[in-house]
Prior knowledge:
heterodimer, A: alpha+beta
Amino acid sequence: MSKEKIIYGVYGDDDVILDAVKAIREKGHHIDEVYTPFPIHGLDTAMGLKYSRIAICSFIYGCIGASCALFMFWYIMIHDWPMNIGGKPSFTLNENLPAFIPVTFEMTVFFGAHLMVITFLIRCGLYPGSSSKSPDPRTTDDKFLMEIHTNGDAKKIKEIKDLMKKTGAEEIKEKE
Amino acid sequence: MKHEASIREPLIIGNKSLHDISEDIAKPIETSANKWWWSLFILSVITMLWGFGCIFYTIGTGIGVWGLNNTVGWAWDITNFVWWVGIGHAGTLISAVLLLFRQKWRLSINRSSEAMTIFAVIQAAIFPGIHMGRIWVAYFVFPLPNQFGSLWVNFNSPLLWDVFAISTYFTVSLVFWYMGLIPDFAMIRDRAVKPVFKKAKNFKEKISNFFKEQTSSYNIYSILSFGWSGRAKHWQRHEVMSLVLAGLATPLVLSVHSIVSMDFATSVIPGWHTTIFPPYFVAGAIFSGFAMVQTLLLVMRKVVNMESYITMQHIEMMNIIIMVTGSIVGIAYITELFIAWYSGVEYEQYAFLNRATGPYWWAYWAMMTCNVVSPQLMWFKKLRTSIVFTFILSIFVNIGMWFERFVIIVTSLHRDFLPSSWSMFSPTFVDIGIFIGTMGFFMVLFLLYSRTFPVIAQAELKTILKSSGDNYKKG
């Protein structure tokens, strides 16, 4: 079996690469990665990427935050040391709930936002000290790069290269 | 590609390409500062140090060095706190609320106004901290298990709600800002040249090469960018995350100043005990926040050559928001007066009569002029599209909003129910020094930011180049 080869196609315009992704996928090729300097709307569906579930994570984290807050109020204000402040005693969580709403809200937002960001960083493998995986540094400036992995089949490589050229790639590179 | 109506003014002027945007935004970082920047920076550092000196004096001696007395227990400290928190409202409003409303003009100004938000909240947090007197026990405000029996914080108190609101607001704004910065730091990193050193001959050279490499701009921006490479999946997650963060931050913006206002509204002091406070404070906060954004950006766009991105249209839009929120504030002032009269409560009536005609009348009328009258001038297109007028007005609004907080706090306290304890407040040099010092601290942070951070969210801005760029719009 021949060696695996990676083909890079560099494009100069977001609309061109979006059309190119659609055209190349129509021909039955799998696009492994696209590096862009800014988000292109519709690129994820064109590439066949699944919908991100990060918003669902945030909802769950928010629920955890609200529960933690309520547990904290119950433990601190009702169970551990009920205080009578200004003639307003703390008997049950239910009765005191109106006073707890602001902090419950803040805790929900706090958990929802921070844990979502941490999830995002972990899932994307982003952390201080991590290095860029982009094969071309111009992809954070004004170039758009498409990456296709092949099993080294010469016919397939030629087909992909021709397709890239036809769809408007400015440069085509090959790497083993 | 999305098309935009041709009657809309372009948001990026001067025939820019994608590469030009990167160039323009990286320029202030890659060039050295001019003498204007240095002189402003040195001035800010001096005022900051003066403020720090006053803070150390306060902590070392006690808050007796301020002008507070038994009657007026809150004055400049809480005024400054509320003023700075209020200023810290525009940034997240621009980046979160305007994102949900799909306002494209937010893109050139969101980064700097969010930076302003974070720096302003840092200033705000100083005041309650030092007002405690014993700042080394400031951690008592958090519900931490401790060795003093079961001494917990009181969750029925608005002051504690404030602790949670401000800390959540600060940290969420910070991560929202930083997540937007990651792709832009990556752009700066990819422009920087990776340092190449001669092979070290001895240990000393090896050490020196190591330090040079660690402090090279490539390395610093590489760390700051978290290894961002702009993959399609990462962008997809980034977009969803930004939207959810905006959704979370929007009610958060509104909650923070509502809770700040409850510090006053839940007490029984005449002039404070009003249900209108939360919306009234939120409108005032946005009003003063936008004024501060104008003050800073009008200077910044000139100094770092961002006139192509922060255009007259952006300035006009912000002026319209100032006008609308200023009008809401005006209505709130008048409603307060009406309700004081209509309530039939003599203490409430006297509090408002005292504000307008008592010994602090000058503060009240300064507030009325700056906050109610002056924003109405923005109805004239000629005035709201004038840079000089906008700048002067933004300063007036900042002054007016400071006086608003001073009027609310001091005039309500200095004459309450018992005439025998009526008193007056006058600030000492320490009060003034700390306030001026926080302005210096704020400017130090902002000036450092303007030279080391990408001041415009370039990755996001590039998405609207084709729909709102000058050259693309002309066809």
